[in-house]
Amino acid sequence: MDKLLVVFKREYLERVRSKWFIIATFFGPVFMGLIAVLPAVMASKTRTSTDIANIVVLDATGTDLGERVAQMMKLVAPQSTPPRVERIAADKLPSAEDAATQSVIHHEALGYLVIDSLTEQGKLVRYAGRNASSLVDIGSITGIVRQALLGQRLEKEGIDPSKVQQLTAVHLDSRTEKITDKGREGASGMAGLFFGYGVSLLLYMMIAIYGQQILRSVLEEKTTRVAEVVVSSAPPDTLLAGKVLGGGMVAITQIVAWLSIGYIMYQVRQPILEKFGAGAAANKLVIPAVSPAVFVALILFFILGFIFYASLFAAVGAMVSSQEDAQQAATPVMLLLVSSIIFMQPVLLNPGSTLAKVVSWLPFSAPIMMPLRMSLISISWTEISVVLLGVAIGCVGAIWLAARIYRVGLLMYGKKPSYRELLKWIRYA
After folding, report:
1. Contact 367, 391 (CB under 8 A)
2. Which domains does the chain have, with CATH numbers?
3. How far is CA 175 from the centre of its chain?
4. Cys-Cys link to 103, which of 2, 109, 210, 320 (CB 3.0-4.6 A)?
5. CB 178 within 8 A of CB 288
6. How do strand 126-129 and strand 111-115 relate by DSSP bridges?
7. What's the whole-model pTM score?
């Protein structure tokens, strides 16, 4: 036990004292906060092009739909050059489009809009222009055509034209609230979704980052022959346990620091968001309530998941003698870990589906998928306990396998062993 504590202390202190750990610990939440806030702020400030109405409207419907579209575009972009409407026959469209294309080429117009019988049927509207790749502009133009077409149809049904705009201009916000076994939670359903996504992504990052750090640490000790000296004073199993526990405690330390800094940032979110011009969004940020039992379950999933993957990464580090071989040998372990992220979107869309249940029960994906499902829907504690037990059994198997590879591979040098040789190592150990 004394030797285990020595190895654990060395692994822990060596990492938490590094400048990169300190920088990542204190600036990581700030960086993640910027990633979460800036896109929303930039999206809220995104506007259509100032000259969006400077287009040619080719109206082949034989109605006043083109004029309606032009009038609405003037209202949307009053500072822009007004649209030019050309009423043409359907068989003249190709030549009219060629002429409109030349107008765009010579900077006489920003683009041209084609309205024909398919548009009247509500099926298709075509646009070509310099801003054809602007999602905001295209969305605005499509919305204008849709609203103009709706207004035309309502007037044909005998509705007063003065009321068409009032009846069709409807902006509806949606508000959701999650209900658990204890009642209404207060936080929105979307807040629970983002919380679950953030928890799963954080667990994935910590396991991937610190698991590979353990791999590099074992490989470095092996290539520099430090392992030969260390093994003479401590058994390989003790070294493996100390590295895994030390790396896990480093990850937990960073998570606790991130959560603490994140909570402080959440408490002072109002002035921070106001600096970015999004102060109104401050009151919409609500952290879903997490009971102590759920919090403990999340920690257990992280610890067991980290032990599972860290043991395998340590075994990979003991197997090889170079960074190139390590990258190839670690591929199967990374595929197991990445497979959890691949199924994240289907689980987010339907956390109660059979697929979601299966991937949250498998030992290699449960540490990430089960916390995600727990954040989205109510899961019985019986199921959670069974899954935790399954992950624990998976950890025992991973440790058993890694320990045998570690005992032999730590002092083996040369080429990467084949699968047949690995089986010999396991039997020999």
Report:
1. yes
2. 2-41+186-428 (no CATH), 55-168 (3.40.1710)
3. 22
4. 109
5. yes
6. antiparallel
7. 0.64
